[in-house]
Structure of DNA-binding response regulator, NarL/FixJ family, contains REC and HTH domains:
Amino acid sequence: MAENSRGATYTADSRADTRNSECRIVIADEAKLIHLALRAVFSRTPRFDLVGSASAVPEARNVILKTKPDILLCEVDIAGSNGLELCDWTRAASPRTLPVILTSRDDPLLARSALDAGASGYLLKTSPPEDLVFHLQSVRAGRRVLDDRIGRCRTSSWENHQDRFGLSPRECEVLEEVVLGLDNRTIAGRLCIAHDTVKSHIKAILRKIGARDRAHAIALVLSTRPHEVPGPRRTP
């Protein structure tokens, strides 16, 4: 993984360079203003073509099957199901289509669930238009993109970790990054600390919370959050 100056963390794969090819996009979002705003952004962006839009999951499935877009931009909360299930369905029904969550929900666990469901990115709607375009170009080139603002202001979670486990504020930050599924080097980059410092923090965190390993630590944290959005269920 690597960080970019535009505020996102990237994971690369071997997809060919597609910077000069057309990028066909479908939007799935209940908010009409989002449709209008994105249409305006893409209309003035070379090689970006908005080929369809939907305000509910059943409609989105029909549009995806009809247009076979390169990228699906969808919100987590959408009528007819949810964005995570739509990502999961899209990966099976239209393998060339790369689902990207574009949401107002700054939630590390939700971002992790989205990536586990097959999303190629998790971005916030507060991203400047030029950053959004840049991130979508990165997705098109085969990278997975995670908005670096995700989980930076998790005050309630930190207080929970401090009260329950006796963690320091920095240890709370590191634990939130671990829950998001990031590796040590990526955590170091996001928090602007040394790689060895991250390892030391994680060792202390595991000892304080009584966890055997990172997976056990994540399970302990999840046990304090019973109301998270459920993971995707494969839809025929």
Summary: The radius of gyration is 18 Å. The first strand starts at residue 2 and ends at 4. The chain has two domains: 2-147, 155-222.
